[in-house]
Amino acid sequence: MNLKYIYRPIAKDLVQVDSLLNESLKRTRYRSILELNSYLLESKGKGIRPALVIISAKACGQVPATIASALVKIASAIELIHVASLVHDDIIDQSALRHHKPTFNVKFGEDVSIAFGDYLYAIAFELIASCKNTDILSCIAQASRTLCEGELIQVCERDNLSLLKERYLLIVKKKTASFFAASCQVGAIFSQSRKSTQEALKEYGFNLGVAFQIIDDCRDLIGSKKKLGKNPGLDFKMGELTLPVLNLISQEPKEKKSIIELLKNQSDERAFRNLSHKFLNSSALEKTKQEAFLYIQKAKNSLGNLKDSPYRRSLSALADYVAIKIDAGYSGYQG
Questions:
Q1: Is the predicted pLDDT of residue 331 greater than 60, yes or no?
Q2: How many Cα neighbours within 13 Å face the side chain of 75?
Q3: Among 189, 141, 145, 150, which residue's Cα sits nearest to residue 173?
Q4: Which band of pLDDT confidence, cut at 50, 70 and 90, is reported for residue 168?
């Protein structure tokens, strides 16, 4: 299963999103900014969030031609906000690679990267404002604020070796799930669907987002640089406790002291490898998978009342795609 197949019903719409992103980012006469924009366009991600906007809108029924261009604008804005958050995340996490390429902070410096992230936010909200829909503006603005709250809480909880699972889930729900939920919700708002449908799609996106982040955190612990497109172990190095590690501590109580000692050695590559090895050889891996799959199932259950269509099937397939990613990044490290 691949994204190209899942996105097939909206392939033409995604071409329009790419076109608008190119147009929006090249609308400047400053060479230095064009260089930044060009580098961004060369480093595209999977486009899950803008795809969710369009698929959700079309899963609710026919999108009138009169609002089709506005839908593309919102999908593009969602992608820009997401990318802006990644640019800032990479600075905060001192990340060196993303999509197999140097991050903006490595290539252009932190000062430029901070300003560039702000610049992307500005373009995004300019696109949103041009649609003149206060419900959509409110939805995205609230989700953006929640995303930032999640990031702030996560940074403030670094090096907290007593972090509770509930606190971890709060961070995930704010930082990742809220924006997945908003992506689906604004699509449903565009289609002028019933409130119950809007809530169902919001719930789908929310649960998909939680699963996505749990799996991403798991892959950071057991993944390879080649498969991830970035260096693994960033959470470990930044002192961030994630669900895989929390499950490892709870599933292996006799190993708690040694696990804590490993977590204190954030700059030690051997400590990270030992932690990864412990996780791979414990029941914590299966427990983490089961918890992620529970959220995947909740997401798919939220689609129950949607009429069958290629778009509904795409949403279900996207949930399955996210589920299999937990094994796709596995490095096979065994000690």
A1: no
A2: 29
A3: 150
A4: very high
Is the pLDDT reported for residue 160 higher than 60? Answer: yes
Q: Which of 146, 169, 329 is nearest to 241 (CA)?
A: 169
pTM above 0.85, yes or no: yes
DSSP helix/strand/coil, 99: coil
Are 7 and 49 in contact by the 8 Å Cβ rule? The answer is no
Instruction: List the one residue out of 170, 82, 185, 106 whose CA is nearest residue 138.
Output: 185
pLDDT single digits (tens) 94-109: 999 999 999 999 999 9
Return d(Cα 194, Cα 251) in angstroms, integer: 44
Residues 6+ apart with CB under 8 A from 267: 237
Write b or e for each residue in 115-142: b if 16 or more Cβ atoms lie within 10 A of its Cβ, otherwise e.
Answer: ebbebbbebbbebbeebebeebbebbee
Extract the runs of DSSP E, i.e. beta strands, from the chain.
97-98, 101-102
